[in-house]
Amino acid sequence: MEALVVRRLGDPTLPPGGDDSPFEAISGEQPVPELSSPTSVRVRVAATSLNFANFLQVQGKYQEQPPLPFVPGSDYAGVVDAVGPGVRKFRPGDRVCSLASVGSFAELIVAEEKGLFVVPDGCDLVAAGALPVAFGTSHLALVHRAQLKSGQVLLVLGAAGGVGVSAVQIGKVSGAIVIAVARGIEKLHYLKSIGADHVIDSSKENVIESAKTFLKARGLKGVDVLYDPVGGKLTQDSLKLLNWGAHILLIGFASGDVPVIRANVALVKNWTIHGLYWGSYLIHRPAVLIDSLNELLSWLSKGLITAKISHTYRLPESIVHLVEQMKTLMVPVTDRVHSYGIGVQSGFGWF
């Protein structure tokens, strides 16, 4: 079986095959994973995405670190290859998607039946392979945690990144008025095309003044939900826009600067501050995560949301391209067109 193997922790942007690179060349000698239980399912991977978490994991900086050596990879989609004797929901040939702590940058992966989701008719497997992490994060944050409602104002920082793009779309499906902050005219045009009501180029405009002008023109008081995968000064400035009773969703700190939100201000303003580590729902609230992903797959099949795939590569030739994409993940999220869902295609797999 072919797979990408991480033998050592290190800088994922170094040329592969060197003494310091964490990656070896694509290995065709990985053993085919065996069914691990009566209810396990082996999936032939059709598509898997490159996420910021993968970048951190290869460096050894992610919240959870697998033992070496390991095959990286998280969300994926594919076709059922084999099932255990206790599996009742799936059979070979079924189209499924899921997420894993590791292992999807490979031809085959094994998962438990309860952790797999049916990919509905009308859903492209590539899009389904880019869905769970980015869209799952935004859906749980906006729909489950902040309970975003129609007519509320949603401010999305880092809106051109993977989770940002998904937040804009989910905001519009929920009926919100969406203000999207990004950098560069091309990215702003894209955000408008997926429904953003107002876009702000943070490299050229004063974010606060631009947002205030838009809100005043619409007769709106302020922002009800702040979606923040960036952190730093942009977070601190954005707090000036928040309404009484607003929700603050802390998704990540791509700027490298963890913001400080003063508790006394949150008290006076009746703000609710949510930390959102999506992966932990698998442990603490799996039913909520399952319901969330099923709703997202339904939306995808109906065309209510779309997964933008920025690059695709074949697996045997992908290692050099993967290193190049890892370099883009070193850039702050506001400078990236799309940080999640970068596909690497092969005859059997994407990552």
Summarize the structure.
The chain is an alpha/beta fold. The chain is built from eleven helices and twelve strands. It is globular, with a radius of gyration of 20 Å.
Please estimate the helix content. Answer: 25-40%
* β-sheet strand percentage: 15-25%
Discrete helix count: 11
Elements, N to C (H/E):
EHEEEEHHEHEHEHEHEHEHHHE
Any low-confidence stretches, pLDDT <50, length ≥5? 329-351
The main β sheet shows up as: 6 strands, antiparallel
- Count the beta strands: 12
Specify Rg, calculated over alpha carbons. Answer: 20 Å
Q: What is the residue-averaged pLDDT?
A: 85
Span between termini: 15 Å
Shape, please? globular
Helix and strand content put the structural class at alpha/beta
Question: Topology, please?
Answer:
Layout: E1 40-50, H1 52-59, E2 76-83, E3 95-98, E4 108-112, E5 117-118, H2 125-129, H3 132-145, E6 153-156, H4 162-173, E7 177-182, H5 185-193, E8 198-201, H6 207-218, E9 223-228, H7 232-238, E10 242-250, H8 263-269, E11 272-275, H9 281-284, H10 286-302, H11 318-328, E12 342-343
Parallel strand pairs: 6-7, 6-9, 7-8, 9-10, 10-11
Antiparallel strand pairs: 1-2, 1-4, 1-12, 2-3, 3-5
Helix pairs in contact: 3-4, 3-10
Structure explained in plain terms:
This protein is α/β, with parallel strands linked by helices and 351 residues long. Helix content is 30%, strand content 19%. The protein has 11 helices and 12 strands. The protein has helices at residues 52-59, 125-129, 132-145, 162-173, 185-193, 207-218, 232-238, 263-269, 281-284, 286-302, 318-328; strands spanning 40-50, 76-83, 95-98, 108-112, 117-118, 153-156, 177-182, 198-201, 223-228, 242-250, 272-275, 342-343. Strands 1, 2, 3, 4, 5 and 12 form a 6-stranded antiparallel β-sheet that branches. A 6-stranded parallel β-sheet has the order 8-7-6-9-10-11, sandwiched between helices. The two termini are 15 Å apart. Mean pLDDT is 85; it is low at 329-351. This is Enoyl reductase (ER) domain-containing protein. It comes from Lolium multiflorum. Residues 9-37 are annotated as: Disordered.
